[in-house]
Amino acid sequence: MAETDMDDLDVAIVGGGPAGCYLAWRLANADLAGSPLADLAARRPDGKLKIRLYQLDDRVGGRIESIRMDGMPDIAVELGAEGYLVPSSPDTARQYPGHVLVASLVEELGLPAIAGLSARSAPSPLLARLFGERRILPHEPSAEAEPVPGLGPNNPWLLRDHHILTCDLTKPGVLPYKLTQEEESALNHPCGLFGYACDQVVPEATACSYVDWQELRKTAEWKGRPLYTYEIGEVLRDVLSKDGYQFLLDTACVPEMYTVMNAADAMALLFCNDLAPMTLMHVDAGYQAIPNMLRDRFVMKHQDGWRPHHRLAWVDSTQDGSTLLRFETRGGGAAVARAAHLVLAMPRAALEQIASSPLFQGDAARALRQDLCAVQPHPIYRQYASYEIPWWQRVDVEGGPGFTTLPIRVSYALGTQPNTQTSLFLVSFRPRKDVGPWHDPQREVKRLFNTEAIPPPLQEVEKTWDGGVEGGAWNGWRPGVRSWEVTRRMLKPIEGVNLHVCGEAYSDTQGWTEGALRTCEELLTSQWKLAPWKAT
Question: Which domains does the chain have, with CATH numbers?
Fold first, then answer.
């Protein structure tokens, strides 16, 4: 690798997901006074850091992907991450800050947003991630935007072959599950059956604030052992009946959050996000507009800073703590660089693809190799369809979700293109695509909504987040892992090497873009001594 061929960089960022784009944008606009990065910039003729943002292909966003379907130019179809959470009131904000970094970015970038959810307003808080009331806050939507439909009284549930309407959901004896009397009463708990169960494990778990949970993740115990050493499913099975636990799984959009995840982190994640009194905000232009605009604004400051179609194939360190990088480029080419600081803004699966590189070998990198396995990627499959009319209105459903134990699990009537009748429908939201050759999603939707009056779809699209460089749709901490220690170590995992790992996977807010941005802010402020973003 000839030195004359190398690109000499101050900061190399590998990964064009939200973490990589955010970090590049922040560095491009940062005041470097007092930062160790200032000396690097000072040696440049223009006094600016030389930054490169590398991406495997030419699309930024990572597991954020927004598209448009034929005939619906004003409705974003979210194939990946779909939004962010904001407190529903000032009182809520004092307990749960919400996704302050994403919310401030949406405001900074001037992106209109629409509200789709207030978690505890839903009849079943277990479905809080998708269902909720219709109201606008805190940003004004575009003139064409409509609020995302919430859960109405006639929305259907098909559980164990029993049809139930939302308005009947909490009536005694309606559910086809043998719940205990306490579990029946818990259906009206602010955090549902999950909240009832966790209150038995951690006293007043549902009343604890975000700050409380940062400490409880470390200190909470169950039966004489640290709570973080258990799988969440093991704990829930201890305190719920067999049917109570099964009902919890059957009404969970993401069942893995109630099965294999580290119990302490699962509770902290759910109570401070999905089950907190928050409102889910959607970006009117599509959630991918955030990383797109961050990349574009970075390029405005660093016109040669964006490097698409670069796959990191090999990385090593030098005696001064810098790193040497080799990339494979489009058409069988190659590129090499030396970086004073290297940021891998990548999830576990992508990191494992370069783990055979010299940088990851030897005793100095032992902790890094172990920490890579501290999280488990989890898949999610989405299938959308467009229809010539909003057919669900024929069965008195205004919009919103249907939920079932059939393989499609969750369906959602999302909206209608202004000035036409072309309508968007989420056919299926479930952990995996493959459920057997007999699976017929359209037939299952008809069974769920208890009608044959559904026209053929105009167009269908699907997305599976499973395997590949992403590994899955989201990551969860494994049992036995001290997540707070891993998160800190990942900011500089090898002593004497200027290597940093950022992203959702190794954050305290897994499954959300906010987690990715928080790791970036921690790197910027604790390692590089830069002023925090205004939202923090």
Answer: 3-63+288-377+475-527 (3.50.50.60), 66-286+380-467 (3.90.660)
